[in-house]
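Summary of Year 1 activities. Much of the first year was spent building the evaluation harness for sequence design. The harness presents a backbone, in tokenized form, and records the residue chosen at every position. We chose the following record to illustrate the format because it has been used consistently in internal testing since the harness was completed.
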């Protein structure tokens, strides 16, 4: 192969990888189950399909998906839902890390994994998570949270903290720096 063909092949391959992050990146999680239509990054997901950083997971009106991430975090996605896996850092057995998703619409169950640095961003506020299992739904301009165990905090215009299933309003509204 001539040097020009070699260079053209390398550039073409590099462009292909750069334009498709799923090819370039290592998986950060796996599909446990997917019914009807569940997709991410243009791919239809099935059992054992990988999830990647920045995947946008979407379900149709009857779609259901369950996912497990490398740190043990579990996410279930209900019908007509959309969620972006926008941050995931996990260093094997080390407990230092972060995970963040952006949920746009739908119903979800979230069970946090090996470390406490979890956040769920919604159009109406951010949910901070610590050793938690909870459901949340984004519907009609509101976020509904059902806490099973652990603690979550919801940060919007007024800060609410849920502990043992009871919401408590913080004494002062958050400053601009505290808002997420």
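For this record, the design step produced the sequence shown next.
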């Amino acid at each position: 192969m001539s040097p020009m063909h070699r260079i053209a092949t390398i550039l073409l391959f590099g462009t292909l990888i750069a334009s498709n992050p799923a090819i370039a990146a290592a998986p950060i999680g796996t599909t446990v189950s997917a019914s009807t239509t569940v997709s991410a990054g243009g791919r239809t997901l099935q059992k054992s399909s990988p999830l990647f950083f920045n995947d946008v997971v979407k379900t149709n009106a009857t779609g259901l998906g369950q996912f497990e991430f490398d740190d043990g975090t579990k996410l279930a996605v209900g019908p007509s839902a959309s969620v972006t896996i926008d941050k995931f850092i996990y260093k094997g057995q080390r407990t230092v890390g972060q995970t963040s998703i952006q949920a746009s619409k739908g119903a979800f169950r979230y069970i946090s994994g090996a470390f406490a640095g979890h956040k769920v961003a919604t159009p109406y506020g951010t949910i901070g998570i610590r050793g938690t299992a909870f459901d949340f739904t984004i519907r009609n301009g509101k976020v509904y949270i059902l806490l099973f165990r652990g603690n979550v905090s919801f940060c919007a215009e007024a800060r609410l903290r849920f502990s043992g299933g009871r919401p408590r309003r913080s004494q002062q509204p958050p400053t601009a720096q505290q808002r997420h």
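The first strand starts at residue 29 and ends at 35. Quantitative recovery figures across the full test set are reported in Table 2.
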